[in-house]
Structures are given as C-alpha cells and as structure tokens.
Design goal:
This protein is α/β, with parallel strands linked by helices. The protein is built from 10 helices and 14 strands.
Length: about 325
C-alpha cells in the first residue's frame, strides 16, 4: 500500500477530478496493484451512477455479452473476475438459468463490492409488508436470484483464491484492461480456475484502429490478449469484435477459450491465496487450518488478498455458530 502522504495527495486529485491512476503511476510503479486498487476504490459508486443514467446504452452493450455466454450451453457455476460494481454481472446472471448461490464475483476493491451488493439488492427486495402484525422486508426472486446469496469476495486477478477447475464459466469484462504488462500471468490464473470456458470481453488492441491503439498505449492497457492466449497453448474457439462498444475508441472483442475438463473439485471452491490450501468459511473469517491463517469478512464480504492474511495460531473455528 502507498504511504499515507501519497494517499492524502490522491484524495486531493480525486476531489479535483484528476486521473488517479495516472497520478499514482507518476510516483509509483506503473500499473501496480496499488494504483489500480486505490483508483477504483475512490471511484466506487460512479459506475452504478453511469449505468443508471444510461440504462438503454448499457443494456444494449451487456445483452451482447449475455448472448455470448448463453451460446456456451448449460453450466452450473459462473464467475465474473473483476466484477466491479456488478453492473454487467447483474444483467448477465438474470438472463441465464442458474442459482444465485452458484454465481461468483470478485474485485480488488472492497468498496466497489459494497456498492455491488447494494446494487444487486435493488429491484429484488419487495416493499415492506405486514406479516402477523409485524412489518418485515421480504425478498422476491428473479430467475432464482435472491439478495446476499451471490458469492462476492475481494481478490486479485493474479492470485485468485479458488481451487483448480473451480468454476464452469469464468468471464471478464474490461477487468484485464488496466493491467498492461501482466497479461500472461493473469490469463494463466483465470484459466487455472476455469473448468469449461474462459470468456474475455476486453478492449482488443489487435483488432483496434490507429486512434484506439494510441489511446490504449497512453493508458497502459493490456494488449494482444489473443496472441498471449495462443502462446500459452489454450484453445480459442472464437475471437471477434462485438458489434457495439460503449466507447468506439475502446472497442470490445469476445475471446472464447474452451478448456472442458471433467475433473471434480472440492466441496468448497475457496483456497488460501498464499498456501493454496483449503479455506473454511467460519462466518467471521475464512480460515486456512494448515498454516492457521485467517482472512477477515467485512460487511459480509470475505477479504481474500494475500496481504489480508492474519496468523491465528489460537483461533478455533466455531462452525456451529
């Protein structure tokens, strides 16, 4: 994490409407985890606001993504890696036949996930009604989705706290974008946790025009994802630009990677990002018994970055609590 003096300067940059990532890159390593985390954490809420101000445009864009995922056929679990504020995730999972308990999403920013949880509740919670004389909040479902049953957690694209082949369909939606220089390690990690398909909805440098490439270069965006995927020996079954992008200078393509393994996974898909051993959900913490590491759960959001680990030699899980 950056020094407190730098964070104070970031606060001023944010108040003045400046580019936080650009500022941090000038005083820190370019495209570092810290710069991405801090930038997105300060911006938390802005994506939901933009979505609500332009729903028709966003629906047109996201429905393309939903169509691509539905074409994959039946599957039992799905993960958005870099879920942000769930503006894409919410509409996608509402369009497919899958239990919300099998819908996962993570982001490096806790604040964005807090916004995401609140956004996922909207249009799901009924207005208050009276039951036996008591006023209660009730929930209705949309395709089986209920509040707080989605599995959201803090994590890093390069150290995903899930076991191998944990999730049937893993997808990204412009989350690899700001990680220029780390394309290979991120793709390897995404592929590792995928069981059936990895789908990338990302800006496409290879298929972009001259102006778009110049913009991507200036922002330090990830490049040449399809080339990197091929170099890793993964099986691309589709690669093309989407008909519609939110920004014509940031054109989105779809890259579908077929993995299709039959290997069964552990009962819990979560694993310690440091030791790769299993994690137990103890309510207040996620606990790794082998190295006796604890990961805090804040406002219902597990914090599973390797930097969040706390040694708890005397911690005893109360699994019946």
């Amino acid at each position: 994490m950056l020094k407190s003096s730098i964070l104070n300067q970031v606060e001023e940059v944010y108040k003045q409407g400046g580019n936080i990532i650009r500022f941090i890159n000038e005083v820190n390593d370019k495209n570092s985890k810290e710069s991405i985390l801090i930038s997105y954490d300060y911006q938390a809420g802005s994506y939901v606001l933009s979505y609500k101000n332009n729903p028709t445009v966003y629906h047109r864009y996201i429905d393309q993504l939903s169509d691509e995922i539905r074409k994959l056929g039946a599957f039992n679990s799905i993960l958005e890696a870099g879920i942000g504020e769930a503006t894409t995730f919410k509409r996608i999972i509402q369009s497919i036949d899958i239990s919300s308990e099998s819908c996962y999403g993570f982001d490096i920013s806790w604040s964005r996930l807090k916004v995401a949880k609140e956004f996922l509740k909207e249009d799901i919670t009924d207005t208050q009604r009276t039951h036996n004389g008591h006023t209660t909040d009730t929930q209705r479902t949309h395709n089986g989705h209920t509040t707080d049953t989605h599995k959201l957690f803090v994590a890093d694209l390069s150290a995903i706290p899930l076991c191998d082949n944990a999730i049937d369909v893993v997808y990204t939606a412009h989350s690899i974008e700001p990680n220029g220089g780390y394309e290979m390690s991120i793709l390897q990690e995404l592929y590792r946790v995928t069981k059936k398909f990895l789908v990338l909805f990302e800006p496409d440098y290879e298929l972009a025009g001259v102006k778009a490439k110049k913009r991507m270069d200036s922002h330090g965006y990830a490049k040449n994802l399809a080339t990197v995927v091929k170099s890793l020996g993964y099986n691309i079954i589709k690669h093309e630009l989407l008909p519609f992008s939110l920004n014509e200078l940031n054109p989105t393509s779809v890259i579908v990677i077929d993995k299709s393994v039959d290997e069964a996974i552990a009962l819990s898909p979560f694993q310690c990002p440091l030791t790769k051993t299993s994690l137990i959900d103890c309510g207040e913490v996620f606990f790794a018994p082998q190295p006796r590491l604890m990961y805090p759960v804040i406002k219902g959001i597990p914090c599973l970055l390797d930097s969040h680990a706390i040694l708890g030699c005397k911690y005893t899980p109360d699994l019946d609590a």
